[in-house]
Design brief:
Organism (chain A): Rothia terrae
Largest sheet of chain A: 7 strands, mixed
Radius of gyration of chain B: 15 Å
Radius of gyration of chain A: 15 Å
InterPro entries (chain A): Acyl_CoA_acyltransferase, GNAT_dom
Number of strands of chain A: 7
Number of strands of chain B: 8
Keywords (chain A): Transferase
Number of domains of chain A: 1
CATH class of chain A: Alpha Beta
Oligomer: heterodimer
Number of helices of chain A: 3
Largest sheet of chain B: 8 strands, mixed
Distance between the termini of chain B: 23 Å
Helix content of chain B: 25-40%
Order of helices and strands of chain B: EHEEEHEHEEE
Distance between the termini of chain A: 23 Å
Pfam families (chain A): Acetyltransf_10
Protein name (chain A): GNAT family N-acetyltransferase
CATH superfamily of chain B: Gcn5-related N-acetyltransferase (GNAT)
């Protein structure tokens, strides 16, 4: 159901479909005028589900924080980050977001040596989405791209 | 000087650079949260200059006789140029004019059935920029994503 691919393994059609989905969810859906896409894409694993028409309907990117070289991510040994977590509006309320998160965590468990997953979560999703699978907030709420965020960690 | 490619000839690195620079200019710089990555790109040709992994100048070209999109209804014999940008680092060197001239020349030489080139121009550029290449206003000024635009055409 979910595909996990490094940037260089994506087809150009898949990459375009990912960017359409992210544009819909973040730029338009949340009216964000931040740089999207950004350079971290090229170092990320892209984790997504497509419908029969090839549209990406659920997406996130997974970043190896031990190796990342990017201004927006601090290096952390033994950790992966989840970011740009997105489900198309038309698919919401059907458990797709939950499946996406569960599958991504399982992928990190199975495919990497990471001992924890870190996320800068939009604050409104803290209790309803991330806490139920074991993510715990660390530190205070902060603003990023004008929206309240919290850092959360899941120990694997 | 300019590279021109069909969508399926683009590398992932090129598509990334194109999308990143379009969003940098149209979404971030102009503070306009609209869906720049709109799904039309697979049916366009992409003309660009890249420098150290960044896009200096870009436009996309498509044959309106083969595309039917809610923003761009089908019109036989018409080609559209769109998403015309120069990157922040490349401005003030005349590259934008070279780009538009190359786009027009590309349509002339490779699309013999096309008699008209259409653009939806940001209004402040109508005379200073597109008018210099022979484009003339064919509509009243209208707002698109809150930015004044005007339709312009160049008869070949």
């Amino acid at each position: 159901m979910f595909t996990a691919k490094k940037f260089s393994d994506l087809t150009v059609e898949e990459l375009n479909a990912i960017y359409i989905a992210r544009s819909k969810v973040f730029t338009v859906g949340q009216q964000l005028t931040v740089q999207e896409p950004d350079l971290a894409d090229r170092q990320a694993v892209h984790f997504f589900s497509q419908n029969d028409a090839g549209e990406v309907v659920a997406y996130m990117r997974l970043i190896d924080l031990e190796k990342i070289e990017d201004d927006h991510y601090e290096q952390v040994s033994g950790a992966y980050a989840l970011s740009r977590v997105a489900v198309l509006k038309t698919l919401r309320g059907q458990g797709m977001g939950r499946k996406l998160l569960d599958a991504a965590i399982q992928w990190v468990r199975d495919e990497t040596e990471a001992t924890k997953i870190i996320i800068d979560a939009q604050a409104y999703l803290r209790d309803s989405y991330y806490a139920p699978v074991g993510f715990v907030q660390v530190g205070e709420e902060f603003r990023e791209a004008g929206l309240p965020h919290v850092k959360m960690i899941l120990e694997l | 000087m300019f590279t021109i490619k069909n969508f399926d000839e683009l590398t992932n690195t090129e598509l990334y650079a194109i999308c990143a620079q379009r969003v940098a200019v149209f979404v971030v710089e102009q503070n306009c949260p609209y869906q720049d990555i709109d799904g039309l790109d697979p049916r366009c040709q992409h003309m660009f200059v890249m420098n150290n992994g960044e896009i200096d100048a870009y436009l996309r070209v498509f044959d309106r006789g083969t595309v039917d999109d809610h923003h761009s209804p089908r019109r036989e014999g018409v080609a559209s140029l769109g998403r015309i940008i120069t990157g922040p680092k490349a401005r003030g060197k005349g590259m934008g004019h070279q780009l538009v001239a190359a786009g027009i020349e590309h349509v002339r030489t490779t699309m013999p059935h096309v008699h008209t080139i259409f653009i939806s121009a940001q209004e402040h550029l109508a005379e200073t920029y597109y008018g210099k290449h022979g484009f003339e206003r064919v509509s009243e000024v209208y707002l698109e994503d809150d930015i004044p635009h005007v339709d312009m055409e160049l008869k070949l």
